[in-house]
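Notes from the 1:1 (GR / supervisor)

We went over the backlog. Supervisor wanted to see one worked example end to end before approving the batch request, so GR pasted a single chain during the call. The sequence is below; no edits were made to it. Supervisor asked that the structure be written out right there so they could see what the output format looks like.
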Amino acid sequence: MNGDRGQMTIDYVAGVGIFLITVSFVFQFMYALFLPFQSGADEVSLAADRAASVIVERMLPLDNAMTSNVIDQRKLIYFNDTKLNGSNVPVYQDTLRELALFSDENVFDLNISVANITTPDKVTYRSGPELPDNADIGQTKRLVYIVNPSTGYNVTAYFSVRVW
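Structure output shown during the call:
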């Protein structure tokens, strides 16, 4: 009787295939369980995103603005020239504390650049220390509308926050 054992090979291949797929998913899942406990670029990316949100939505917004991501040019100039001035270390560290980037456990550095949307390679405002060559850098870019109510100046720009 040749017909009794016809499906044994197919059943074996299907069973081994399902087993191998299951084992690979288990290993991927186990790796993902321990990934959040490793320090790396995710930590600085989250810090950059949080810092960008605080700066744009709480520190630099235009007074009486009805929408988010509208910032006052005068506040931006003051923030760049005074609060992120690297030569005045206590003020710079206070700004980092205000952004939750400076504590006893973690110390991050902050760099901000603003570029016009039509010419993104030409940076209009830049502040903070120079970017390091050999560190994990987290970056967040936001599209903002910069307004100066005194002069009527307004422009749409990229607001980049880098943390390391």
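Supervisor's comment: The chain has two domains: 1-38, 39-163.
Batch request approved.
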